[in-house]
């Protein structure tokens, strides 16, 4: 535990305590004085209002530590390639990089493990939900701190559900009955789905919830066996597709929709519900939506009626570049930027639309009363969705595998072939990928 002397030696006495939002049991640094004063660290990351909110406050970090942090934004679709290109070139231009968790296995050679630093400074990874911890770790090592993350949630039109006399669904059967009731009563399609391909395997995101919730999975733990062709997985996949194929409650276009199309369908009044990442709340209630904020409700992701909550969650950790020449200073920044106090401050501050953001990643921040008061209780509900949350397989070969599965789901959504046949065909293609990678023999 940090002591009073260490706190004052860190930089600015009581001012440092206020800047770092220290509370009992929270450790930030053992550094004496300002040993890294005059250092500049460069951070590569995608655009996000959360990160712009950080930028507003980087002066606080520099005042307390003497370290200057500079943010360089890269278009989201180019971040992975940019990290790789810099690393292959041997460049030390960036000290900290932000990556999506599913990219981790292919980037781990370029990232610095931080387990020794975590232990030295008593940083507790258990302060994050399960999926966020998993997304920061690979092969038993921790490479990042999850600064940005997204649980999935169910968003719905309060007014349409009220007209239909139904409550928000809590399980997959209720999703069907509620969607039908709304559709029959209001003539608005019950739910917008996104089965289309070509936009980052988004049609797998909800499928995983059905699959895991039914007790199925993609592979065995060691990847030696395919599991998505097992009876439970076939049943789960059929249920996922049947919102469109059997029950006819999915909005027109869902067979081709990607995530953004489904969100816009609700925002434009053309569907009553959508299951999607939590940041979409600002889209549904924003200036470009036809909806008023009071029309938009939210609930945890549904589950099977007889099962435990489980959903896919995504995170974007910050990591120290393995090629950085300022690793100690970068670690000081990592501790500063990962503080619950900072993310809570950013989530509460709605003074500037350019920096207004909802994202927090610490469990205590999801449950913080002020954060929930300002954000209409969104975070407490999101915490429910994170119960039992999981991540996608951490495989270097995952991009190839995901593309195969993405194409399969898209084809199955047309109803052109039985689910079992499509999944078995995908399993054959993926088996070849995993054999080449050495996960399977024979």
- Tell me the total number of β-strands: 10
Instruction: Supply the CATH class of the largest domain.
Output: Alpha Beta
> What would you report as the Rg, rounded to the nearest angstrom?
23 Å
CATH domain fold name of the largest domain: D-Maltodextrin-Binding Protein, domain 2
Output the structural class.
Answer: alpha+beta
Write down the secondary-structure element order.
HHEHEHEHHHEEEEHHHHHEHEEHHHHHHH
CATH-defined architecture of the largest domain: 3-Layer(aba) Sandwich
Low-confidence regions: 1-30
What's the name of the CATH homologous superfamily of the largest domain? Periplasmic binding protein-like II
Number of domains: 2
3D structure, described in words:
The chain has 442 residues and is α+β, with helices and mostly antiparallel strands. It is built from 20 helices and 10 strands. Strands 2-1-3-10-6 form a 5-stranded mixed beta sheet. Strands 8-7-9 form a 3-stranded antiparallel beta sheet. A hairpin with a 2-residue loop joins strand 4 and strand 5. The longest helix is centred in the last third of the chain and has 18 residues.
Question: Mind sketching the topology for me?
Answer:
Layout: H1 4-10, H2 14-20, E1 40-45, H3 49-65, E2 68-73, H4 79-88, E3 96-98, H5 104-107, H6 115-120, H7 130-135, E4 137-138, E5 141-142, E6 144-150, E7 152-157, H8 158-164, H9 172-186, H10 205-213, H11 231-245, H12 259-267, E8 273-277, H13 281-284, E9 296-300, E10 314-320, H14 327-337, H15 340-348, H16 363-366, H17 369-374, H18 378-385, H19 398-412, H20 419-436
Parallel strand pairs: 1-2, 1-3
Antiparallel strand pairs: 3-10, 4-5, 6-10, 7-8, 7-9
């Amino acid at each position: 535990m940090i002591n009073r002397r260490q706190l004052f030696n860190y930089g600015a006495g009581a001012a440092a305590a206020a800047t770092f939002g220290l509370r009992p049991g929270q450790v930030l640094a053992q550094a004496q004085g300002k040993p890294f004063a005059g250092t500049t660290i460069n951070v590569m990351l995608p655009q996000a209002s959360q990160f712009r909110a950080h930028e507003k406050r980087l002066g606080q970090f520099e005042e307390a530590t003497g370290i200057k942090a500079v943010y360089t934004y890269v278009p989201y679709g180019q971040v992975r390639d940019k990290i790789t290109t810099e690393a292959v070139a041997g460049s030390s231009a960036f000290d900290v990089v932000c990556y999506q968790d599913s990219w981790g296995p292919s980037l781990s050679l370029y990232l610095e493990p931080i387990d020794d630093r975590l232990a030295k400074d008593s940083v507790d990874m258990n302060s994050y939900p399960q999926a966020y911890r998993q997304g920061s770790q690979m092969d038993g090592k921790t490479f990042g701190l999850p600064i940005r993350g997204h649980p999935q949630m169910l968003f719905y039109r309060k007014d349409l559900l009220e007209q239909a006399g139904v409550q928000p669904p809590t399980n997959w059967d209720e999703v069907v009955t509620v969607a039908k009731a709304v559709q029959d009563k209001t003539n608005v399609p019950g739910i917008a789905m996104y089965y289309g391909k070509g936009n980052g395997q988004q049609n797998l995101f909800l499928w995983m919830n059905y699959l895991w919730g039914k007790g199925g999975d993609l592979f065995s733990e060691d990847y030696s066996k395919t599991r998505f062709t097992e009876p439970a997985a076939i049943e789960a996949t059929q249920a996922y597709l049947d919102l469109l194929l059997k029950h006819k409650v999915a909005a027109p276009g869902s067979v081709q929709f990607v995530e953004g199309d489904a969100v816009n369908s609700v925002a434009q009044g053309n569907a009553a519900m959508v299951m999607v990442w939590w940041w979409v709340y600002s889209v549904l209630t924003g200036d470009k939506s036809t909806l008023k904020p009071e029309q938009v409700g939210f609930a945890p992701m549904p589950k099977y009626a007889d099962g435990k909550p489980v959903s896919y969650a995504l995170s974007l950790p910050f990591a120290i570049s393995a090629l950085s020449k300022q690793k100690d200073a970068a670690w000081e920044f990592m501790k500063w930027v990962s503080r619950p106090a900072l993310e809570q401050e950013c989530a509460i501050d709605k003074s500037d639309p350019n920096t207004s953001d909802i994202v927090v990643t610490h469990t205590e921040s999801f449950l913080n009363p002020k954060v929930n008061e300002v954000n209409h209780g969104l975070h407490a509900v999101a915490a429910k969705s994170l119960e039992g949350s999981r991540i996608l397989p951490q495989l270097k070969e995952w991009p190839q595998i995901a593309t195969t599965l993405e194409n399969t789901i898209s084809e199955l959504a047309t109803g052109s072939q039985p689910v079992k046949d499509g999944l078995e065909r995908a399993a054959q293609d993926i088996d070849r990928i995993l054999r080449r990678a050495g996960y399977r023999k024979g």
